[in-house]
Specification:
Tetracycline Repressor, domain 2, 12 helices
Length: 289
């Protein structure tokens, strides 16, 4: 089988690296995103972590290639389609993991322990966790929290409960909507690729949406936040949080889309892009100006 660079790039799923920008959140929320030294270090850590995250995706594809062959979308993945062999994928996975760990060891050695925890958690998810309802989306949410934790350790910053809670529930919310897309595909293709029903997912989506809004607004009007920001106007950014949650709900429920991967939504949906930009600008205006 000839070496196909495009297929190996596709196997690593670089579009999913956007998720690893969560590593920069501690720096952003601390008001030090303009510290070029810390920003550079965070970006290098994000690159190293992204290589490791890609190796986890490869492991998942190796374990699921048979079921992927029956999936209407996943059948085109490099391993499921037979364009990359399991042996070649295993070597590629080991290479990416090694490179990622070397980068982290050189740049931020204190992040290694949490990175190993991330790898272990995702191995559990791939082998067992994703087959257990609720545990599967909880594993996804914990993975995002570990990203934020790595970012804090890399820059020697202290995480606040607000950031951890918001990260966890936002990731849980996005995981729920990813499952809504999977469930919709399952109903259309008659292939059992999900553990949930649409009514249940819609119900918990509404619950988690409410939790996120309450936590975020409470954060923006808390005394500690007002003192830290030197302003009581951060609550204005809540508008974009509510709009973002409603937009995701619209895309997954009202428009009946089946591709609800968070990265896909951010890349492809123009409205979502502007909502995210609006939130970043409104938050940064208070924090940095």
């Amino acid at each position: 089988m000839s070496f196909n660079v495009a297929q190996y790039i596709k196997l690593a799923r670089p579009q999913q690296w956007l998720k690893n920008l969560f590593i920069l959140l501690p720096l952003f929320f601390s008001g030090q995103l303009d510290n070029l030294s810390l920003l550079g270090q965070s970006l290098v850590v994000a690159i190293g972590f992204s290589l490791i995250a890609s190796s986890i995706y490869i492991l998942n594809d190796c374990m699921d290639y048979k079921s992927d062959q029956e999936h209407p979308h996943k059948r085109n993945r490099p391993i499921a389609s037979g364009k990359i062999t399991l042996k070649s994928a295993a070597k590629y996975m080991a290479t990416l993991t090694t490179l990622g760990l070397i980068i982290l060891m050189i740049t931020a050695p204190k992040t290694i322990l949490i990175t190993i925890l991330y790898i272990s958690e995702n191995i559990f998810y791939t082998l067992k966790g994703k087959h257990i309802p609720i545990v599967d989306i909880t594993c996804i949410a914990i993975g995002f929290c570990l990203r934020v934790w790595i970012g804090a350790i890399a820059c020697q910053l202290q995480l606040t409960p607000w950031i951890v809670l918001l990260t966890f529930f936002l990731a849980l919310f996005l995981g729920i909507h990813k499952r809504i897309g999977d469930t919709r595909i399952s109903l259309k293709s008659k292939i059992k690729i999900t553990l949930y029903t649409l009514p249940f997912l819609k119900m918990i989506s509404g619950i988690i949406s409410s939790v996120i809004i309450v936590i975020y607004i409470s954060y923006t009007i808390s005394e500690d936040t007002i003192i830290k920001m030197g302003s009581s106007t951060l609550y204005i950014s809540s508008l974009f949080v509510v709009m973002g949650l409603m937009r995701v709900n619209y895309l997954s429920i009202q428009s009946k889309s089946s591709n609800l991967d968070p990265t896909h939504l951010l890349i492809k949906d123009a409205v979502m892009k502007w909502i995210v930009i609006g939130w970043v600008l409104s938050y940064a205006a208070v924090l940095y100006i």
